[in-house]
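Morning!

This is the sequence you dropped in the shared folder:
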Amino acid sequence: MAATIGLALALSACASRPDYRPVSDTPVRIGKPYTIRGATHVPRAESGYDVLGYASWYGNESGNQTANGERFRPGGVTAAHKTLPLPTYVEVTALSTGRTILVRVNDRGPFSRGRIIDLSRGAAEELGIRAAGHAAVRVRVVDPPERDRKRLRDGKTARERPQVDRRTLDHLQAQFARGLRDGLIEGQ
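The structure's back. Tokens below.
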């Protein structure tokens, strides 16, 4: 009897911890402006967000709380972005291969020079960039079906997305190269 009561108390204590709260897509939070390392970031809704730049990945923060209050799961397919609302769903395409994945943005970052998104270890593996550590990517806000959203909330991968066709990939790579040359994309 005492063991049962002790277990019930332990379970109820875990249930009240904020880092174990159920994952939800609502409410979507834009957030207030914030300053990191002298740079001010102003979160905003950007339904047409479609940007080329560099992605990196992170994974040593296992169990830490993300900016939207969830517990960080390195193996999940999530990401950190400086200004997009939390959560936001983005399609990330590796410009080296044309591989595209769906990712759930639930944290703030990256705060490293030249990065537009930080992927979780699971997302980096799914995209095929974990070994490289960083990669040129296209990040585009999308509105995926609920079943893909649910899979990502549950820490799983979404259904496989079609690879970008060769012509589109060539165009994106050329656009990326021009952006680097013209200083519109920060280099490494």
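Headline: The longest strand covers residues 50-58.

More detail when I'm at my desk.
O.
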